[in-house]
């Protein structure tokens, strides 16, 4: 598993809580913590939290892909319907 370090705010978002609650959960889980050069404390995610993070990222990507495909299908449906209308309205040319 990759090493992923997050601030308490980021971890709170991942754990659906505020930063203070995330800090308490980190202490209970005995996760590694380090102060970064920017002055913020970062927490190293364990395997379970890393899996949760990667799962959420994958779901977001899949949701975007599905939305894009649905929009493409809707646009294609519109073009096909327009083509059908044009074909039905065009006068037929008979060759003789």
What structural category characterises the helix and strand content?
Answer: mainly alpha
List unreliable stretches of 5+ residues.
none
- How much is the average pLDDT? 91
Largest sheet, strands/sense/barrel: 3 strands, antiparallel
Number of helices: 3
* 3D shape: rod-shaped
How far the N terminus sits from the C terminus, by CA atoms, comes to 74 Å
Give the SSE string: EHHEEH
Number of domains: 1
Radius of gyration computed on alpha carbons: 26 Å
Strand percent estimate: 5-15%
Helical content class: 55-70%
Number of strands: 3
Provide the spatial order of strands within the biggest beta sheet. Answer: 1-3-2
Task: Please characterize this protein's 3D structure.
- The model has no long low-confidence stretch (mean pLDDT 91).
- This protein has a three-stranded antiparallel sheet with strand order 1-3-2.
- It has helices spanning 8-14, 19-29, 47-89; strands spanning 5-7, 33-35, 41-44.
- It is 64% helix and 10% strand.
- It is rod-shaped.
- The chain has one domain.
- It has 96 residues and is mainly alpha-helical.
- The longest helix is centred in the C-terminal third of the chain and has 43 residues, at 47-89.
Features of this protein?
about 100 residues, mainly alpha, three-stranded antiparallel β-sheet, 3 strands, about 10% strand
Produce a short descriptive summary.
By secondary structure, the chain is mainly α.
What's the structural blueprint in terms of helices and strands?
Elements: E1 5-7, H1 8-14, H2 19-29, E2 33-35, E3 41-44, H3 47-89
Antiparallel strand pairs: 1-3, 2-3
